[in-house]
Amino acid sequence: MSGEHATPKPQKKITLEGKVIAITGANRGIGLGIADCCLSNGADKVFSIDIGEPGEDPEAVEKRYPGQLFALKADVTSEESATKAVDEIIAKAGAIHGMVANAGRTKHKPALDFTTEEIEQLWSINLFGSFYCARVAARAFIKLEIKGSIVFTASMASYRPNKRVPSAPYGASKAGVRNVTHTLAMEWAQYGIRVNSVSPGLVKTAMTYWVPQQPDWEQQLKYYGGIPRLAEVEELGGAYVYLLSDAASYTTSIDIPVNGVIGTL
């Protein structure tokens, strides 16, 4: 086979060597853990696109990888703002090879108690913001003629509700992310762009600090089954690194659950 559809030489080593990766919401939490793992696996530069200031959380990563982790302020719920951020990345780094649409928020309460504003906030950042960032990245890949990779952060809540702390709007937003993953993968395969997602389960972040503090947490773990603890943010990184790497050159339209088998039954 020849021409633009010629089979590329398979990459047998999982590495991000030389790649420029953008990660939304990477000033803390899961996003920062992904950034750490990307740099640990050879990424040339990682840019956090976040609405907030970096704070102290990224300092340890920056010390290990001086001059490789950068923070850009942008509102991912605005496609214009996201576009400016990606344009700035290209201006500074000369390229962009991967986009992790990770920024999100969560809120758990009975469906009848959600206000319209709360629902719109969840959907605006989790679903609309992720979609906008994917489109911005795709446009950049096509313009630069780069066969880039887009990875969404979905959630195990996109498969089924957590019986202890249900959130219909949150689960719906993340289910939308997984559907968008499959649809965009189909649409953009013609450009060599791969689109996948990762579905974390219970992860130790500032948003979940209260989970193991519940008085019946040990009993909950027996109920959930699986690995009896929350995941460390860095334990998610391998899935993202693989999907961003050229070793995954024929992997698109999939979701990788990373949940220690907790809550899968």
From TrEMBL:
<dbReference type="GO" id="GO:0050664">
    <property type="term" value="F:oxidoreductase activity, acting on NAD(P)H, oxygen as acceptor"/>
</dbReference>
<protein>
    <submittedName>
        <fullName>NAD(P)-binding protein</fullName>
    </submittedName>
</protein>
<comment type="similarity">
    <text>Belongs to the short-chain dehydrogenases/reductases (SDR) family.</text>
</comment>
<keyword id="KW-0560">Oxidoreductase</keyword>
<dbReference type="InterPro" id="IPR020904">
    <property type="entry name" value="Sc_DH/Rdtase_CS"/>
</dbReference>
<dbReference type="InterPro" id="IPR036291">
    <property type="entry name" value="NAD(P)-bd_dom_sf"/>
</dbReference>
<dbReference type="Pfam" id="PF13561">
    <property type="entry name" value="adh_short_C2"/>
</dbReference>
<dbReference type="InterPro" id="IPR002347">
    <property type="entry name" value="SDR_fam"/>
</dbReference>
<dbReference type="GO" id="GO:0016616">
    <property type="term" value="F:oxidoreductase activity, acting on the CH-OH group of donors, NAD or NADP as acceptor"/>
</dbReference>
<keyword id="KW-0521">NADP</keyword>
